[in-house]
Amino acid sequence: MNNSLLLSIILTLWTAPSLAYEDSDAILIGSGDELPDPDYPVYEESCDEQRLRDPSMSDEEYATFLFYFQETDCAYTFKLGDTGFGGGTVFYVTDEGRHGMEYAPFELEKAAWGCEGRKIQGTEEKGIGFGWQNTQYLRKAGCSPMVKQLDKINYNGYTDWFIGSIDEMSLFIKSIEVPKFEGDLSFYWSSSQHDDPYWNDYGINAYVVHFFRPSYLYHSVKGRQVKTVPFRNF
Predict the structure, then answer these.
(1) Share in percent of the chain as helix, strand, coil (round to 5)
(2) What mean pLDDT comes out for the span 49-62?
(3) Measured in Å, how far apart are the chain's first and last C-alpha atoms?
(4) Exposed e or buried b per residue across 8-45, where buried means at least 16 C-beta atoms within 10 angstroms of its C-beta
(5) Residue 44's pLDDT band (boundaries 50, 70, 90)?
(6) CB-count exposure of residue 130 (10 Å: 0-12, 13-18, 19+)
(7) Which tops the pLDDT comparison, 2 or 230?
(8) pTM to 2 decimals?
(9) Contact present, 208 and 113 (Cβ < 8 Å)
(10) Mean pLDDT along residues 81-101
């Protein structure tokens, strides 16, 4: 055979695999980069597993985590009377049961609202959804025996309890059966400061709710010893 022809055949056989290897559509077999089997099962955590508390989370962090977890497809839906995340009883729901309020199964001991003779800015809100805000302002003021007692509460692993606004307290009273709590079924403090400029006690009194007349607005001097029931949001 002609040496030139033989050399041409050898070069052709040598370059063909190289061209195929450089082809962008070629797939290397056995290289360790194989595509996964489309039928290979992928493990997905259940909703209960996703809801589990990370050991590094504080009580407040876990409460915040659950609040936003309730916006996911795994949200737990509550009904009135259910037991909430904090171990209390649900008495108010929103967002089709994903959020709301629960009240603790215990009362705080009688204590003064505190801050007598002072107008505590930010505690004048009376509506639904303002109890947490009122309590934060009252806590910041640092003069409330009621809130100092509240700050010692760690019930069922939760420390984010607050004192309800007057409208929240009225709603709570209307939601429970008499007698729910033992003892003096009379007045309960709210976190709402009485802020009506037409009264001489402007900023000196705070709102209370009466167990048997929850629709009436009452207010009392802040130094009065009155009990209350903690709430928390979920």
Answers:
(1) 30, 20, 50
(2) 90
(3) 90
(4) eeeeeeeeeeeeeeeeeeeeeeeeeeeeeeeeeeeeee
(5) confident
(6) buried
(7) 230
(8) 0.75
(9) no
(10) 95
